[in-house]
Structures are given as C-alpha cells and as structure tokens.
Amino acid sequence: MSISRRGFLGSAIAASLATGLNAQNKSKSNVPRAAEPSGGAKRPILICANNGVNYLDDAFAFLKSGGDTLDAAMRVVKGPEDDPNDDSVGLGGLPNEEGVVELDACCMHGPTRRAGSVGGVRNIKNVSLVAKAVMEHTGHVMLVGEGAERFAVAMGFPRGNLLTERSRKIWLLWKEYHSTDDWWGPGLADPHWTPPSSSPTTAPQAEHWEDRIRRLEQRAAELGIEPEFRRAAVRRVLVPPTGTIHCSALNDKGEISGCTTTSGLAYKLPGRCGDSPIIGAGCFTDQDVGSAGATGSGEENIKVAGAHAIVEHMRQGMSPLEAGLDVLKRIARNYNNDMSKLKFVDVTYYILRKDGAYAGVSLWEGYSNKPHKIAVHDGTKRSETTVSLFQGVSHDFPQFPVELPKELRKD
After folding, report:
1. Per residue in 63-91, pLDDT tens?
2. Of 199, 188, 186, whose CA–CA distance to 338 is shortest?
3. Which of 44-48, 275-279, 297-301, 394-398 shows the lowest mean pLDDT across its residues?
4. Distance between CA 75 and CA 255 in Å, rounded?
5. What positions carry a catalytic annotation?
6. Dihedral sign, CA of 137, 138, 140, 144?
7. pTM of the model
8. 255 vs 75, 244, 245, 287, 363, CA distance in Å?
9. Given 3-state DSSP classes, what are the helix, strand and coil percentages for the chain, each rounded to the nearest 5?
10. How far is Cα of residue 33 from the mean position of the Cα atoms in its chain?
11. DSSP string, 363-383
12. Which candidate, 371, 309, 300, places its Cα nearest to that of 341?
C-alpha cells in the first residue's frame, strides 16, 4: 500500500480540499462553509454515516412533518440494525472472538437535554431503541451487559439470535485462519508495540498471499457462503472491520438530537465496549450548539472524547470542518504523528451545527479503495466524500504484512 503523509491541514489546504463540499461554513481562516440559514444552510436536515443513506427519505419526511428529532434519527439507524445483510450493526453484526454478537448504542435528545446508553448487549436487535428507553424510563444514563438485556426484555424488546448464518460462517472462517492475529496485546498504544513488516511484496510473498486467499475462498465455499459474497467474506477475515452508524437530526425550529449504534469491532474480546455507547465519544449533542458522532477506531476516539470536543470547539466559534479536523489532529498527536502507527488508525466524524451547517471529516481518505462518505438529506438526498487529514488509505489492525490484492479490496 502506498501512503503519503500530508502536513496537518492549514486553512488554505482545507479550503482546497473542501471545494464543492456543501458541508463547510465560512470562517476566519476562509475555510469554505455553508452560509448562515438565510444564505443557504438548510433546516430541517439529517446527516449520517453512509450506511444509512437508504433510510434518509422516510426519516426526512417524518422530520419535516413535525416529528421529534431523536425519533427521526432513530428511523435512520434502525434500518441497518434490522438488515441481516449489514454486518456492521444489529442483526447479522459480526461477532466477538467467541462467536457472540454484542451491541452498543447511545442517544442524546437535545430539546430535553437527556441521554441514554447501553453497552455489550446480547440477543436484542435494536439497541438504539433500548438506549432511548434507558433515557425515557430510568434515572440512569447507561446500562451494560446482562442488566441491559434484562431491562430491554422488561421493556418489551424481544430476545433473538443476532448471529445470522452468513455472519456465523464468516466468524468460522476467521476462527480457522485468523485467530492468531487477534485483539490480545500489546495494543497499538503500548510503547513495546512494533508494526508488522512493511517489506515489499516480493514474488514469494505475493505467491504465498494469493495461495492463502485461494484457500480462504475454497473454505468459504465449503462453509456455504454464497459465491457472490465470498470475496467480501475473505476481506472481513483478513481485515477485521469496525462497524457503526451515527445520525444527527435538526428540525426547522432548531431542535437537534443524535444517536450512534454498532456491533463493534469484529472478533473483539468479549465485553469490549468501544466509543459508540460512550456519551461524549461516539455521540454528543448540545441543544445550544450542535451534534457530532463518530465511526472507526473506537479506542482512539474515546481517548480524545471526540464528539464532545467537536461540539465544544463549535461553541467557541469554530466551523464544523475546523472543529472536526482539530480533533483528528489530537488523535495524531497521541501518537506523536508517527505514521507507522497512525496508518492502523482511522476515525470519521459526522458534524451538524444548530444553524444547519455540517461537515464530514476523516483521518484518512478511506479504507482500501473505498472513500469515507457522509450522507445528507436537507430536501435533497446525497452522499459526499469526507475531508481527510491525511492522504491515502488506512490499514485496519490487526493487519497482515502485505497489502491486499486490488481485486480483494472491492467489497
């Protein structure tokens, strides 16, 4: 993989990268952004991770007709939660290392300044709605594990097996071929961690890699994974994905809410919670300012309280773009800008200000050849490429010492 480093974005560089992106608002550093509401920024508006784009139309119609902002955001994230073919959240999510799906979610309701969260939930599909139930029906903010599951059942949520046949077979494929490259330490932040070999893909290495892929595809066929999905399944084994969706919703009255839901890091240690259920990391909404959420490397986002930091930056006058890029710089700072480590990290932020200005920013341009995108609906539904801090694409972690063949990077 060829990765070039970009110096941290100054205002002029940010301006050139942001050309044509409707998300940005005008600032002291001349970073392009949408004008104030009277000049073009629109309300109502929904923004979300791109895996929610197909659910924006219904949610926008609901929001525009006077529906509650959190309920509108829930309509977006519930779509992937219900979809067995979306292995990033809810039903069909990729499991932990023991083959068990564990889900996390949180939400914040701007108009009433309330929040709810659940972590490590098993057997309950729509954990975003469970987080909302925690907010509405308890005096707590967060419930986890068995207690969260029992609460969900008491509230009428049905138990069910979240591990679909396809996800189970992918886990078996990982178990057989990838279990020695798991999430046991040392972790990326450990001072004794060393990156995998980055030596060129010599002919013997390439032949070995191709042979391994062939064997994985053959085993995928033996496990009964559909032919059209085998390459994607192999990719999920070789490069374990993160999976999350965030959505923020703003109505024409200026009321704003946000929510984030996930099945977490594929093949994670049981009990692991990432940033998605953490108020201030995976999601943060302040009725006075705006809302932000995240996908990607949850551990890194937790350490900078990313969503909260972004909203606080906007409170101090930064545009959504400036606020998001500044927090990405904090993540890079935590590794002393060491690109041999940062290439194993990636975070995307989805940012919405109270006036309707928005931005999508990411540490890297995308995964493999798939760019990071933010989905938007303000009367017109669209997907827009994020503004990235660094050029190039990230490796997921754990990672093999050679780059995936080009054809395998198509998912």
Report:
1. 999 999 999 999 999 999 999 988 889 99
2. 188
3. 394-398
4. 17
5. 244
6. negative
7. 0.81
8. 17, 24, 21, 7, 29
9. 35, 20, 45
10. 23
11. SSSEETTEE-EEEEESSSEEE
12. 300
